[in-house]
């Protein structure tokens, strides 16, 4: 029986909707907290007993929610919520950990609750590991095939200093000073790139570890990143994500 629920969601309308739906389908269940970031979630799990269920958005303000699993062990059922396409969702329907598209519908949530209440912790742990491996492939992107004149050309990932998004267009700034427009979104790149080499600093920038020249303290616990050979580029890292990028740089 699901009685204690934790919501990890950085968009208030979505969190409020989940709370309302949970109240409808499980009136006796209580929402213990609504957390908005990886940092807050790790702290919560370190200080509290595991709930019966976590409703977890895949993408949070300071990164992918799977970073939480790298820091703490979570022994409870999990329902992931996201705006991913239907194809990805179908792939997870065979697992005991469920995966729902936003906006979550009451009928779907009821079905997910009922399914999770039938599974054991062993089943849940296997499913969490499987989904994590799916979203974080072992073979990371090494090149891009891009249109060029009347054909195509190859751009190596190792030539990229940083990726950035402007006006909903993704661009790669290369070591030779050139830029290339990419068809991938920043979210897709975040999954495809080796996390040891690239870090999603904010919604606009993904940085190569060798591109960082200086890290400065900024206002209200934020950080300001200066890029080698690009003094006009300033990348601001939020307070919630500051400790993550420092740990990445120190790894």
From TrEMBL:
Residues 4-117 form the Response regulatory domain. This is Two component transcriptional regulator, LytTR family. Keywords: Phosphoprotein. Gene3D superfamilies: 3.40.50.2300, LytTr DNA-binding domain. GO terms for molecular function: DNA binding; phosphorelay response regulator activity. The keyword Membrane does not apply. The modification 4-aspartylphosphate is found at residue 57. The keyword rRNA-binding does not apply. Pfam families: LytTR, Response_reg. Residues 144-251 form the HTH LytTR-type domain. It comes from the Bacteria.
């Amino acid at each position: 029986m699901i009685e204690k629920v934790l919501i990890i969601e950085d968009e208030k309308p979505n969190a409020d909707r989940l709370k309302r739906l949970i109240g409808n389908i499980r009136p006796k269940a209580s929402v213990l907290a609504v957390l908005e970031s990886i940092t807050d979630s790790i702290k919560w799990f370190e200080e509290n007993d595991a709930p019966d269920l976590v409703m977890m958005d895949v993408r949070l303000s300071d990164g992918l929610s799977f970073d939480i699993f790298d820091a703490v062990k979570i022994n409870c059922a999990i329902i992931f919520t996201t705006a991913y396409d239907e194809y990805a969702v179908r792939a997870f329907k065979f697992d005991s950990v469920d995966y729902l598209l936003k906006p979550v519908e009451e009928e779907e949530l009821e079905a997910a609750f009922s399914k999770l209440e039938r599974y054991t912790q062993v089943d849940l742990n296997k499913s969490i590991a499987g989904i994590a491996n799916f979203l974080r492939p072992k073979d990371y992107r090494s090149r891009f095939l891009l249109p060029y004149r009347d054909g195509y050309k190859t751009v190596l990932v190792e030539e990229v200093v940083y990726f950035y998004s402007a006006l909903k267009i993704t661009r790669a700034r290369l070591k030779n000073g050139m830029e290339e427009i990419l068809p991938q979104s920043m979210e897709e790149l975040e999954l495809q790139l080796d996390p040891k080499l690239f870090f999603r600093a904010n919604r606009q920038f993904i940085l190569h570890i060798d591109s960082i020249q200086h890290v400065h303290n900024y206002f209200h616990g934020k950080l300001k990143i200066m890029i080698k050979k690009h003094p006009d580029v300033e990348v601001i890292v939020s307070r919630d994500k500051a400790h993550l990028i420092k740990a990445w740089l120190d790894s």
